[in-house]
Amino acid sequence: PASEIMEYMIKKLPEFGGTVIQTEDEIAACTMAIGANYAGVRSFTASAGPGLSLMAEAIGLSGMTETPLVIMDTQRGGPSTGLPTKQEQSDLMAMIYSTHGDIPKIVIAPSSVEEAFYDTVEAFNLAEEYQCPVILVTDLALSLGKQTVEPLDFNR
Predict the structure, then answer these.
(1) Would you say residue 30 lies in a domain?
(2) pTM over 0.85
């Protein structure tokens, strides 16, 4: 379900001067996002639960170096690579305790499309303010669903 995020961003980011880089795996995606943020560029990565397991060490690196990092976790059925088209909400505890040792991190779980929009903006702001990883935890329905919302306030 995280592939749809990348596909959407490939279409939309160039309008705002952004770019998308598809890496070879989740480890590279997370460390590349850390590197970009370290250099002062707002960046993020997205994956599903099994990919987040691979990112655990890099999430710890972000916390240890106090480098902002935003990750979108689109939960799906498990365990392991499990059921990519089935819904499950089982990653929350894994995201809270996703690293070795204790580092500050923020986990946000939006429950609607509108919340996901505003929470993503807030995730970037919180990551920069507190210099820590912020993980947005969604599920299949929210990641792939469409919903009519009031016009979004880009200045909020």
Answers:
(1) yes
(2) yes
